[in-house]
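Q: Got a minute? One more chain.
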Amino acid sequence: MADDLLARVQEQAERSEPPVRVAALLRIARVQTVFDGDQARHTFQQALDEIRGLSGLGGEFLLEQARLLAAAVAPDLLREIPSVAREPRQFASERLGRIMLEHEHGDAAYEYVMSYDEPSTFPFGVVSALMQWFGDEERQLAVLRRAIEAWRAAPDHRFGHRFISVFQSAWKVLPPEEAREVAQEIIHVTRSQPDWAITATYDREQTVRITSGREHTLFTILHVLRRLDVRLAESLISEHEQLAAAARRFPDGMESVMEEAERRRRSASGAPSSSGYGMAGRHGISHT
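A: Always. Here it is, folded:
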């Protein structure tokens, strides 16, 4: 029945003007992904061939829709479809990786991340999900090392915080000496760049507040330094007033924050958990 309905829709689309026909074919291919991957790919390829003949803003819009659908239907065709996205490139790159994983294209997502060659828009937000996707340590390690390479190529804090978010939760995948080296590099880069303003709180009562982007970064990897370089951790705490105040409340940094959130969750008898941690700055607002 579904096949008959789609066939009628496709027949109607064939009689439409090219932009309408292409839009309809993309929608049909999206529906077909649910029950017939091969047919979805065929329909998508038909739409893609026609998109190449379109111009103007309408053509650009359909081309970007085709990129998103390719991630779901035929990730291997992504390289053939130029990006015309108007959203920030790092968000677009992460969206593509997530779509691949949502549609069970784990190997394609792995290749996508491993071969991504634009460090400033690297899809750091996909790295953790991809590491969870694969159970083997070899690929987990490879993905994390690729993220490290991308960060080293573009360590500016405007992008670097996305990598640090990955590292502070995945660092144990690395050999200790390698993890220590990366942590030390993060500290060096953070201290060498101009500070930037944020507002970060780490508990519901907001008793701990950090307004320095630099000190917030140091706090987010404090638990790593506690394990791998105690001397450096203590030195940083002695040099930074806000970090010291946060460390008195949460001795192991974000690890302590998450542990407290888990205790609150358990004491709430199954109520939804919230760590109360949030951050705001000139690059946006995020909550965990």
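A: Residues 176-288 form one domain.
Q: Perfect, thanks.
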